[in-house]
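Usage example:
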Amino acid sequence: MRIRLTLGLTDRPGTLLRALERIAVNGGNIISIVHSRERLTGGYVPVSLSVEFPSHEHFERAKSGIEEAGIPVLSAESLERSIETVLIIGSIGVEKLERVFEGKGEVISLAYGGGRRSPYVRIVFSVNREERESLISSLEELAERNDCLLVREEV
Amino acid sequence: MISCGIIGYGFLGRILAKRLADYRGRGLELRMLANSKGYLLLDGDVPPGDITPLPRFRASSPLEPVERGLVDLLVVLTPTNVRTGEPGLTYIREALGRGVDVVTADKGPLVVAFRELTSLAESMGVSFCYEATVGGGIPIFSLARHSLMGDRIISIRGILNGTTNYILTRMHFEGLPLDLALQEAQMMGLAERDPSLDLEGIDSACKIVILANALLGVDKRLGDVKVRGINQVTSDAILAAKELGMTIKLVGSIEGDRLSVAPRLVRLNHPLCVHGTLNAIEFKLDIMGDLTLIGRGAGESTVSALLSDIEWILNRRAYLRGGR
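Running the assembly step on the lines above writes:
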């Protein structure tokens, strides 16, 4: 699993190395590092790392190790994305759909069909895996409020 | 000789009665046939192999022979009422309470009073078997309780209603609208005149409740299942799914504490994507991973499950006799 970790490093030599060691011993493979010296706040320099971990447990152990080394983990965000397909059977406006997706997922294709007699909309979208259930639940609630039926994919 | 009685002398009852004629040599004799209006005792003058056309039943409570101690093993095949469990619930409760082994294909009593009935059977030291209530002839409970004993079931999902699966299949392959596919299913005897239990997903939800209670040790009721039926599914929507290599199926699932029945998009190469009246059930197991069973979920195949339960009871009785 791919994670974006943002650490708060003190501007002293060797701090980043201690964090990287904790990641390495837990099987983390570093994809990129962005060191934002210009964003120094409260004595910390935020450093953003994209890391591939073998599992969630490895990530959790690395995170604990970094914190135990006295380095604050400012944020940790999954970069895993999944492609989902849903059908909404019934009539539903595109504006309402767009509001649900705002900031949560990216619509890859959106196809209306069925005419007035049996309208539906088929949506293919990408979403951060951790937010998948929340986004689909929001779509389901929207469908129910509009007397529509949401049909999600069985994986 | 073990005396067997059947309450519910319809399609399944007639087939089972004929099959049981072969069991005389195995120490089991069919002694009673009953329906809601009365019963008939078979005292040797009516050969069990030749009991059609429907004989005249004695107008009385079908439980009378059970109360008189004439039945050791009762098969309950009454029509299902999923809200009250009756009349099967009373028959099963009475029989188990009198120390009679029970086999049933009636879902209602299990949906309404699963824990009560299984506890009663346990306290009376008798068998209560219900393989035929879910998936017709597919050996779900016996497989889970015997062959999968060393593993742990994490989740269960499946296509559990043959009627809706037939309708959705016809909509997928022929582009039929739902009402026409339903009419066709009714003409073929696959759907009831009132198909609401099937179309609204209630029948599948009952099966999900039984599976959860029996295999995952929970105490769930019909109201605990989030149910959406197929009433709103259109052939245009199925066509839209088909364009992406999918179709729509009515899927029941148990994941942790969540029980649900809803139409789902299923890829055409997915193990659960079975067509026609077939049922499919998939276990997710701790060690083995996924295990999928496919088979006929209704009709004559259900008799296979009833006979499997009867065989199990005969073997258990033989074992207990030997143990003494």
